[in-house]
Amino acid sequence: MPPQLVLASNNRGKLAELQAMLAPLGVRLVCQAELGIGEAEEPHRTFVENALAKARHAARESGLPALADDAGLCVDAFGGLPGVDTAFYATQFGLPKGDDHNVQALLEQMRGVGNRRAALVSTLVAMRSPEDPEPLIAVGRAVGEITREPMGEHGFGFDPVMFIPAFGKTFAQLPPEVKNAHSHRGQAARQMVQLMKERWGAA
């Protein structure tokens, strides 16, 4: 098992979450930015294709095994959108890129929409090298409903408006360890830990 994995992201919240979730493997995640690696192109329309592109780019540029996460919000009433465009959602409506603006734009677009069902989806891809013919792929989904206003102080992204019926709270209202255990990224990370143990011989 490699002692280091390069994370094909510069999102500090994502790095902290994934580092905690991969703790059982004893690996250290290194942000690609720390290695001077720029962000990959993400031209695809599916999470898995973009995650593959990001992992391949990070592995090629770093010479290390790479882990990439492509995640987003899929809103039923919008036919699964914003999907792969989640990070840039606000920019479609003339707002700057950023979590708070994304939440603002989503709530404005959903004003008057009755069907508020949505899923946060995380697709994790790990590659030993850019030519790895057998990338590890894990997918997690957290299904809930979009609230009418933000609630809670924890997390990032759409956590303040993602209401999880099983808890009666948004992800942002849950303690981080509870959120991580049940989130889309938490589900995908647990699958990835098992895949790495099985396929890469991790301890």
From TrEMBL:
<dbReference type="InterPro" id="IPR020922">
    <property type="entry name" value="dITP/XTP_pyrophosphatase"/>
</dbReference>
<feature type="binding site">
    <location>
        <position position="70"/>
    </location>
    <ligand>
        <name>Mg(2+)</name>
    </ligand>
</feature>
<feature type="binding site">
    <location>
        <position position="179"/>
    </location>
    <ligand>
        <name>substrate</name>
    </ligand>
</feature>
<keyword id="KW-0460">Magnesium</keyword>
<dbReference type="GO" id="GO:0036220">
    <property type="term" value="F:ITP diphosphatase activity"/>
</dbReference>
<dbReference type="GO" id="GO:0046872">
    <property type="term" value="F:metal ion binding"/>
</dbReference>
<comment type="function">
    <text>Pyrophosphatase that catalyzes the hydrolysis of nucleoside triphosphates to their monophosphate derivatives, with a high preference for the non-canonical purine nucleotides XTP (xanthosine triphosphate), dITP (deoxyinosine triphosphate) and ITP. Seems to function as a house-cleaning enzyme that removes non-canonical purine nucleotides from the nucleotide pool, thus preventing their incorporation into DNA/RNA and avoiding chromosomal lesions.</text>
</comment>
<feature type="binding site">
    <location>
        <position position="41"/>
    </location>
    <ligand>
        <name>Mg(2+)</name>
    </ligand>
</feature>
<feature type="active site" description="Proton acceptor">
    <location>
        <position position="70"/>
    </location>
</feature>
<keyword id="KW-0546">Nucleotide metabolism</keyword>
<dbReference type="GO" id="GO:0009146">
    <property type="term" value="P:purine nucleoside triphosphate catabolic process"/>
</dbReference>
<keyword id="KW-0547">Nucleotide-binding</keyword>
<keyword id="KW-0378">Hydrolase</keyword>
<keyword id="KW-0479">Metal-binding</keyword>
<dbReference type="GO" id="GO:0035870">
    <property type="term" value="F:dITP diphosphatase activity"/>
</dbReference>
<dbReference type="GO" id="GO:0000166">
    <property type="term" value="F:nucleotide binding"/>
</dbReference>
<dbReference type="Pfam" id="PF01725">
    <property type="entry name" value="Ham1p_like"/>
</dbReference>
<dbReference type="GO" id="GO:0005829">
    <property type="term" value="C:cytosol"/>
</dbReference>
<protein>
    <recommendedName>
        <fullName>dITP/XTP pyrophosphatase</fullName>
        <ecNumber>3.6.1.66</ecNumber>
    </recommendedName>
</protein>
<feature type="binding site">
    <location>
        <position position="71"/>
    </location>
    <ligand>
        <name>substrate</name>
    </ligand>
</feature>
<dbReference type="InterPro" id="IPR002637">
    <property type="entry name" value="RdgB/HAM1"/>
</dbReference>
<feature type="binding site">
    <location>
        <begin position="184"/>
        <end position="185"/>
    </location>
    <ligand>
        <name>substrate</name>
    </ligand>
</feature>
<feature type="binding site">
    <location>
        <begin position="156"/>
        <end position="159"/>
    </location>
    <ligand>
        <name>substrate</name>
    </ligand>
</feature>
<dbReference type="GO" id="GO:0009117">
    <property type="term" value="P:nucleotide metabolic process"/>
</dbReference>
<feature type="binding site">
    <location>
        <begin position="9"/>
        <end position="14"/>
    </location>
    <ligand>
        <name>substrate</name>
    </ligand>
</feature>
<dbReference type="GO" id="GO:0017111">
    <property type="term" value="F:ribonucleoside triphosphate phosphatase activity"/>
</dbReference>
<dbReference type="InterPro" id="IPR029001">
    <property type="entry name" value="ITPase-like_fam"/>
</dbReference>
<comment type="subunit">
    <text>Homodimer.</text>
</comment>
<comment type="similarity">
    <text>Belongs to the HAM1 NTPase family.</text>
</comment>
<dbReference type="GO" id="GO:0036222">
    <property type="term" value="F:XTP diphosphatase activity"/>
</dbReference>
